[in-house]
């Protein structure tokens, strides 16, 4: 079992070709285990909900009677069927029963309801928008040079194996991570390199594999897409329904607080009007019929549920994004996290040990290594992350001790 480590430089065409190559992969579309529960709340659970709702609405539209119209007595059965089909396609308009129907055609057209035929398609489009950030993440994170999917999968499988297999697997993961961490780093430090390192720390979009910020910048960017998407869903539905959907949930709560009976929303009217013209020779006969939209009974409940669901997802996504911003901006959070696990296996008492731990976190693990450890801990257990960090820390200490002994050995040979 091996994990590929690439050393080629990043470029725009590599990113684009990877997106095209991986977009159609089924494993990419169904998701992966290299994210946290808030990401899955967006790209998995919300997508499943939207697809289920789209299927329910489609069934109601194409299997049952989506619309019923009250037609004049002189209409034959053929005329009734034609009226139903015409009113479903040509849109209806809503005028409350207490209001007078406008005489002017333009005023009637301004009251038209144009969304109900397209609800299944808009729900599927929303599902795609929630899934897109995950597709972007799974299609590009391997450009970091590390197969994060395999790493997290191996870490998760250690919980089911024997103690010997578990220890061997964790050692293999630590070996792969050590190779990856050492393959992408700057071995020549000068003014430009230090300036680039500081810039990548301050702005995650100036990410680079050699600065240890590629995965971090990509991960934060994807989380920003999740937040932008769920907030943008309210504006999308505003445009789709031609109503102020952003306050729909507040209106429902206010209605329930002031009335004990669920009131019909004007956004999803069940009784509407339809104008149709029938040509008879050279004469146009205009009819206004009253129609019932049973499908709006489902639309009303579905979209009120989606309003509260989107508010919940938006709150979780914003809090999650701010927490990851805090972890990546403040380096002390990295040090505290790593120190907590190292103390399980090794004592950090002296000032030199604390300095070495800080150097291990800032210069060896860096942001990308810290992210990998966090993702492993979230998708397996803290014990697995602690064991993995123990082997990384042990290898780093041994390498540091050998490095410190070399000048002393050279000095003693010269003295002899």
What would you note in describing this structure?
By secondary structure, this protein is mostly helical. The chain has a domain at 8-146 and 212-329. It contains 15 helices and 5 strands. The strands form 2 sheets. The protein has a 3-stranded antiparallel beta sheet with strand order 1-5-4, covered by helices on one side. The longest helix has 35 residues, at 295-329. It is elongated. Mean pLDDT is 78; it is low at 1-13 and 19-30.
Q: How many strands in all? A: 5
User: C-alpha Rg, in Å?
Assistant: 31 Å
**What spatial order of strands do you see in the largest sheet?**
1-5-4
The number of helical segments is: 15
> Termini separation (Å)?
48 Å
| H-E order | HHHEHEHEHHHHHHEEHHHH
Molecular shape: elongated
Main attributes of the structure:
416 residues; 15 helices; 67% helix; disordered N terminus; Innexin; ion transport; transmembrane helix; transmembrane
Quick description:
This protein has 416 residues and is mainly alpha-helical. It is 67% helix and 6% strand.
């Amino acid at each position: 079992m091996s994990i590929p480590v690439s050393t080629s430089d990043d470029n725009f065409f590599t990113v684009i070709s990877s997106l095209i190559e991986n977009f159609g992969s089924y494993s990419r579309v169904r998701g992966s285990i290299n994210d946290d529960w808030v990401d899955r709340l967006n790209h998995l659970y919300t997508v499943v909900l939207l697809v289920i709702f789209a299927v329910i609405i489609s069934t109601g539209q194409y299997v049952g009677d989506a619309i019923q119209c009250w037609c004049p007595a002189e209409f034959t059965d053929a005329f009734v069927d034609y009226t139903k089909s015409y009113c479903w396609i040509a849109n209806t308009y809503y005028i409350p029963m207490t209001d007078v129907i406008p005489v002017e055609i333009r005023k009637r057209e301004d009251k038209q309801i144009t969304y109900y035929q397209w609800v299944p398609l808009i729900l599927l489009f929303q599902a795609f928008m929630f899934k897109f950030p995950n597709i972007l993440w799974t299609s590009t994170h391997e450009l970091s040079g590390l197969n994060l999917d395999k790493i997290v999968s191996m870490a998760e499988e250690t919980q089911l194996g024997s103690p010997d297999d578990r220890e061997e697997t964790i050692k293999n993961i630590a070996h792969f991570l050590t190779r990856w961490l050492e393959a992408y780093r700057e071995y020549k430090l000068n003014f430009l390199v230090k300036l680039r390192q500081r810039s990548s720390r301050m702005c995650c979009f100036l990410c680079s594999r050699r600065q240890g910020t590629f995965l971090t910048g990509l991960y934060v960017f994807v989380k920003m897409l999740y937040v932008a998407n769920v907030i943008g869903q309210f504006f999308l539905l505003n445009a789709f329904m031609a109503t102020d959907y952003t306050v729909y949930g507040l209106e429902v709560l206010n209605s329930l607080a002031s009335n004990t009976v669920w009131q019909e929303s004007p956004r999803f009217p069940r009784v509407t009007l339809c104008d149709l013209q029938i040509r008879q020779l050279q004469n146009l006969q205009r009819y206004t019929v009253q129609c019932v939209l049973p499908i709006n009974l489902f639309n009303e409940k579905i979209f009120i549920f989606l309003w509260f669901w989107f508010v919940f997802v938006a709150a979780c996504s914003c809090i999650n994004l701010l927490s990851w911003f805090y972890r990546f901006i403040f380096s002390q959070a990295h040090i505290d996290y790593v120190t907590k696990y190292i103390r399980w296996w090794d004592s950090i008492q002296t000032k030199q040990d604390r300095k070495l731990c800080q150097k291990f976190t800032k210069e060896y693990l860096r942001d990308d290594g810290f992210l990998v450890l966090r993702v492993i801990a979230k998708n397996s257990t803290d014990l697995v992350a602690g064991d993995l960090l123990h082997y990384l820390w042990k290898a780093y200490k041994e390498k540091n001790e050998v490095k410190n002994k070399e000048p002393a050995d050279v000095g003693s040979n010269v003295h002899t």
